[in-house]
Structures are given as C-alpha cells and as structure tokens.
Amino acid sequence: MNDPQTHSKNPDTFRRWGVLGGLFMIYMASNGITMHTLPLLYPELIETFGWSETQVTLPATIFFVIGAFTSPPAGWLLDRFSPRIIILSGSIIMAAALTFYAQISTLWQLVVIYGLLGAGLSLCGLVSNMVVLSSWFSTTRGRATGILLMASSLGGTVFPLLVGQGLLAWGWRDTVSIVAFATGATMIFSVLIFVRDHPSKVLRSNNVAPGQPKFSSVWPTLRQSQFFRIAFATGALWFVIIALTQHQSIYLARDLGLSRENLPKVFSVFFACSVIGKFGFGFLSDYFDKRLVMAASIIILGTSLAILSNINVHAPIFLYSYAVLAGIGFSGAFTCIQLLIAAYYVGPGYGRILACLVLIDTLCGALGTRAIGMLRESMGSYREPLIGMALLCVIAAITIATLKKPGTE
Asked: Do 74 and 362 touch, CB atoms closer than 8 A?
C-alpha cells in the first residue's frame, strides 16, 4: 500500500525527505562526535596532562548530568518556539564548545566545555530531531525514525577512523580544531538548508495541549511496580552502556596496550555493528515478544563485557568478536528500550512518562561513567568492574523478561 505522504501529488514529498536528510546529518555529527568519538581522546589527554581515569572522565559525567537536567527546559522551548531555531542554537553552542576544546590547559576548562556540549545536545539532539520528524511523517514515521537512529551509528563508524588518522598525523589539538569546524559546518549548514518547521505547526502558549493530561494525571502510573522495574532495567542498561562507551578506549589503549592504529578500527567495527543491532532488533520486535527480544539483546551485551574483561588485544578474533557483539548488543538494547516504553505507555501522558525515564536513565549513565572510573583507580584494573557490569546486564534481562505483558497491569 502506498503511503499517502509519499504520493506524487503531495507537493511536500521532496521537502519532507530533505528535512529527514538534514536531521540525519545533524544527528550523525552531534552524537557521532560527542557520544562516540571524543572518548578516543582520553588516552591523549592522560598522556598530555597526567590526569587519572576518574579525572579524564569527570567531564563526561558532567555532560550527562547537564544533558539530563536541561532536557525538560529544552522540551518546554520546543513546545513554544520554532524547533528549527532551537536546533540551530544547539548546533552553534556545540560548534563553539568543540572549538574551545582544542585550547584547553586545565581540567576545569574541559568540564565547562562538556557542560556546554550537554546543553547544546539537549537543544539539537534526538528529542528536538524527533519533534521535527514527527511533524513531517505520520504513516511512515517508523521507517523515518529507523533511518534517523542509524545516523548515530554511522557517525560512530566514520568519525573514529578520521580522528584516529588525525591523531597520528597532527596530534590531538589540531585534530579537534578540524573536527570542530567540520562538525559545526555540517550541523549549521544542514539546519539552514534542509530543516524546516512543518507549515501546519501551531505554537502553543502553554505546555499542555487541549485535552492532554497534566503531569498529576500520570502520577498513579509512576507509582506502579511495573514502572519501577522498567526504570531499574533501563537505568541499569544506561549505566552499563555509557560506562562502556566512555571507558573502553582507556582500557584497550592504556591497560591492554592496543596501538593507536588499531584502536579506531575497533571503534569503527563496534559502531558499524550497532547498525545491525538497531535494525535487527527493531525488526524482531515487530514479530516477537518485545520483552524477550530486549532480554536477548541485553544478554548479548553482557556476553561482550565478559569477553572484554579477559580479552587479549593481540588476538584479533577475540578483539573483533567483542566489538561485533558489543555493537549489536548495546544498540539492540538501546532500540528495544524505546520500543518497550512505547508498548507500555504510548497514549495520553506518554511524553511525561518518557521524560521521567529519560531523566533517570541519563543520570544512571552519568553515575556509570563516574563509578567505573573510581573502581578502576581503587582496584587498579577494569576487569572486576566489567564483570560486575556483565552481571548487572543479567539482572536487567531477567527483570525485563519477567514483566507482565503490556496492558495487563
């Protein structure tokens, strides 16, 4: 059946897909750099400034905390003003922060920069992208959302290779300067040329649309045991996922001696396989029980952590087996989180419930980054924390698999 949105008589067809293309580039640049590529610089910063693992990952902790608490205000702005202007503002903030990154000389300067990156990403990241996308797509929204989510994985595949080459050729300061220019130009150009607010968008004077429930009406849902179990499982996953993405470069390069030439290759395989995870587990969720599909993705992630805790970086089969399994597992779990929450809570109040879970998950991600760094320093190794993270995955998988079916509570 043809989607009425893509029918040839619709004059908005090309503009709609042009908007999606612009959002794709913005999401690829913003998340691909901040979430998936900047951790490659940690070994360089440790070598340059003599910082510890806890110190070098402190800015990332601030990044996630700032991102968590600026998301609700960003949502308020998106309800009242042009999402295109909000995205442009976030893009400019991120470009400026990355430009200053190349000039840092103290840890507090890096903390401030990561704080700006967190605030900027709240304005131009996934939430604002989804607001624009949802206004342009209805019956093809699932397909469009899948394409948009792929952008982050593509950025995580391409940018680490480019940054890795830059580190070898020019050093980290010049590389960051080039990255700042390329990222800013890509995001700002994409907003100005491709992204448009939908013509039918009507700005609302308050945060609650007519007929939409206020926050107090979803309070009973937030008190249900089911909500707490979902919040625990998704929070545990964010703890593991963010800690893994922030610390794996330090573990592989500093602790295990993986060369500068091979580290970006492992990152690239990791994120290339995350494309498989996003589409694969999204597809499986359409045909099988979402709880069991999500539990399977979590077990794959836990298995990869067990491999990583005892890996030999000089044995490529184990190194790249880890990268493949971790990429598929983490991206599959991330995708299933979105699908599972929608399956339980879509409808009136969904936005507020989702906001609560996003806040919890993001703070857990910040806690994971900080806690694993502190454990590394106290124990002298990442091996025990990695095993603990694998066990946490098992607990999360059991929690999800034993939830009641949607609509039964």
From this structure: no
Q: Is the dihedral of CA 323, 329, 335, 338 positive or negative?
A: negative
CA distance readout (Å), 215 to 208, 268, 346, 357: 9, 42, 15, 14
Nearest to 361 by CA among 184, 210, 198, 234: 234
Strand, coil or helix: what is 311? coil
Per DSSP, helices labelled H in 81-140 are 83-101, 107-124, 126-136
Q: What percent of the chain has pLDDT over 70?
A: 85
Say if CB 329 and CB 278 are below 8 A apart: no
Domains of the chain as residue ranges with CATH: 15-198 (1.20.1250.20), 218-403 (1.20.1250.20)
Pairwise CA distance, residues 77 & 62, whole Å: 22
For 137, the token pair is 């797509």
Residue 204 pLDDT > 50, yes or no?
no
Q: What is the DSSP letter of 349?
A: T
CB 284 within 8 A of CB 293: yes
Mean pLDDT across 125-136: 77
Q: How confident is the model at residue 140 (pLDDT cuts 50, 70, 90)?
A: low
pLDDT score at 206: 38
Closest CA to 179 of 165, 191, 193: 165
Average pLDDT score over residue span 394-409: 84
pLDDT at residue 210 in the model: 42
d(CA 284, CA 279): 9
Contact 232, 360 (CB under 8 A): no
* pLDDT band per the 50, 70, 90 thresholds, residue 203: very low
CA-nearest of 371, 389, 61, 386 to 236 is 389
Angle (CA) 108-114-120 rounded to 5° is 140
Q: Which tops the pLDDT comparison, 188 or 60?
A: 188
Q: Report how far residue 25's alpha carbon sits from residue 384's, in angstroms, rounded to the nearest whole number.
A: 38
